[in-house]
Amino acid sequence: HRHPVFDAVPLLRDVASVRFPSDGGAHTLNRATPGYRGPRPFEAVHGAGYRAVYDFSDLDNSRFAIPLGQSGNMMSRWSHSFVEGWKALRYVEIAGTRAELARSAAGIITLSPATR
After folding, report:
1. Per the domain annotation, does 91 fall within a domain?
2. Could you tell me if residue 111 is inside a domain?
3. pTM of this prediction?
4. Structural domain count, the chain
5. What is residue 109's predicted lDDT score, i.e. its pLDDT?
6. Residues contacting residue 67 through CB under 8 Å, at least 6 positions apart
């Protein structure tokens, strides 16, 4: 993953950008599209941002993976927390009822459409 702004800043590139070998192509499950430009023409510049396996017979057995971290903040200790799992095809369990998850949440963000 190249950070859209900080990848061009040498001092911030290593903090903000995550690079690792990855197989896959435009028509595979492990989707990746190379840029075909610059010094690394086969580096993937576009790919999946979420993978999931849903078990409809037992939803508590469902799994997901994201390539970076949950925060989106490159200065957070969690910004790259899922990279190794993504590379190794490890998944995180999606489990718990809405009430159970709300009880253990650090906070809840509610997105609502604007009213006219």
Report:
1. yes
2. no
3. 0.65
4. 2
5. 87
6. 1, 18, 47, 48, 49, 82, 83, 86
